[in-house]
Amino acid sequence: MNKAYDLVIIGGGAAGLVAASFAVQLGASVALVEKHRIGGDCTWTGCVPSKALLRVARTAHEMRTAARYGLTSVEPEVSLKSVMAHVRDVISGVYEEESPETLQGDGIDVFLGAAFFLDPNTIAVGDITLSARRVLIATGAHPYIPPIRGLDDVDYLTSESLWELEEMPPRLLIVGAGPVGVEMAQAFQRLGSQVTLLASRNRLLPRDDPEASRVLGEVFKAEGINIAYAARAELAWQDQAGIHVGAGGRGLVGDALLMATGRRPNVEGMGLEEAGITFSPDGIQVDSQLRTSQRHIYAAGDATGGYQFTHYAGWQAAMAVRNALLPGTSQGVSELVPWTTFTDPEVAHVGLTEEQAREKLGIDVRTCDWPMTRVDRARTDGDTAGFIKLVHRRNGTLLGATIVASRAGEMIHEWLVVLQQRIKIADLSNAIHVYPTYSVAGMQAASEIRINQFLNGTGGKVVRSLARLTRSETPVPVS
User: Fold this and answer.
1) Rounded distance, CA 358 to CA 54, Å?
2) Which band of pLDDT confidence, cut at 50, 70 and 90, is reported for residue 452?
3) What is the DSSP code (8-state) at residue 474?
C-alpha cells in the first residue's frame, strides 16, 4: 500500500504532536508515524509522570512538616504501588487527548511502527509505503548511560524504567545531578527513601547560577539527602548487600540505582543514510530554519541535539511546519529558551548567567539579587528559600534572569518577554503587579535597579543637591 502526503512526521512525542496539529490546521494532508507510544517521553516517562510524582512527594513533605504552620505533623504512610497508580492515572488522562483515535478524528493519519527512509521522499512503515512532499523528523532522545565498569551487570533504573517501581527502595542511589537527578532525589527522599545523590561536579545543576546550586544544596541537606560532590561514578557491582558504586575514591551502596546521566538524540535505525541526511551521535544537523541537508526534510526537538525541553521542541516543531508549508521562513533556533527544574524551591532561568555575561561584556555587567525573604507572599507561605537575580547592563538592559522560588517556573516568563522585546528593566517597575504574589519580587528587583540608576545618574545628583539646599534653609519663625 502506498499513500502520499503533504507532510510526514516521524515521531509522535511533544514536537510531533504540535507539528501535526498545526499542519492539519493549515490544510495539509498529514501522516504521523510513531514506533512506540503516541505522546513520547513527555507523556509516558518524562514531564507528566515526574511532575505528578513531585506533587505527591510535596504533599507528603507538607504532612510531615505541618507543625511549622501550627498544625499537627503526621508521618504519611506511603505505598509506592498506590502512588504509581495515581501517576499512571494522570498519564492516562493526558493520553486520552492525544490517542491515535483522537488524532484520527482531527484529520491526522496515524501509523504505529518504525519508520525507515527508502529514499529522500519515501518512508516505509512495515508493509506500508508513505510518499512525502515534506518530512519532519521529531524522534526525541533516549537516556544516555556512560561507560562505567561493571554497570552492565547491575540492575539499574533509568528515567524510562523508574516508573515500573512498586516498592519503595529503602536506599536509593542516583548518579547525575542535573534536572532529572535532583527532581527524583527530592521526590524519593520525601516519599521515604534515603537518597544519596552523586554529583560529578562540585555543585548541583551545573548549567544554572552557582548561587542557585548552593541554595538547592542547602535545602537538600536540610531534608536529609546525602550529596556526594565531585563524585564521578567509575565502577559498579551488585551483591547481597545491595548495589555498590565507586566514585571519587568513595564507596556508596543502595538498594536501587537510578542513572540520570543525560540524554542522547534518537538518530539510529531509520535510514537517515538512505535519505542523504547529515547526522552524528550528537543529533541531526539543521540550519537556522530547521532544514536538514535535504531541503525538504526538517528536524526539530531533541533529535537535533539542542536544548532538550518539551516547550522548546514544540516551538521548533511549529517553526518547522511554518517553514515547510508556508511562504518565507522563520528562525527555528533560539538562545532565549527559558527552563525550570521543578524541585522545591523551583530553579528557573533565561538568558545569560552572570558568569556568561561577564565573559561576553566584561565590566558592563551589573546584578541585582533580591531575596525571597523580602517577598511577603513567600513569607506567608513559609517558602523563603531562594532569590531572584537579574543580570543587566549599566543602562538597564536585561541580559539574563535566574529565579529560585516556589513559583519560579511561573515567574520566569515575564523576563523572557523583557529579553525578547528588549524592554528596559526600569519599564517593568512601572507595571502594577498583584499583591501579594511571588511575581512582586520581579517588580521589587526592577524598582531597586531603577532607583539605583536614577540616584547614580545626573538626575540623582540634582535631586540630592536640591535636598541639601532644602535642609540648609533657615526656617521662618511663625508668629
Assistant:
1) 35
2) confident
3) P
398-405 vs 387-392, strand pairing mode? antiparallel
For residue 137, give the nearest of 2, 257, 266 by alpha carbon: 266
> Whole-model pTM above 0.85?
yes
pLDDT at site 248: 86
Exposure string over 191-219, b if 16+ CB within 10 A, otherwise e: bbbebbbbbbeebbbeebbbbbbebbbeb
Q: Are 173 and 46 in contact (CB under 8 A)?
A: no
Give the pairing of strands 194-198 and 171-175: parallel
Cell numbers describing residue 95: 493520553
Res 186: pLDDT: 98
Q: Where are the alpha helices (DSSP H) in 35-96?
A: 40-44, 47-64, 80-95
- Residue-level pLDDT at 114: 97
d(CA 101, CA 108): 9
Average pLDDT over residues 318-343: 97
Query: CA angle, corner 151, sides to 146 and 195, nearest 5?
Result: 85
Whether the CB-CB separation of 42 and 90 falls below 8 Å is answered with no
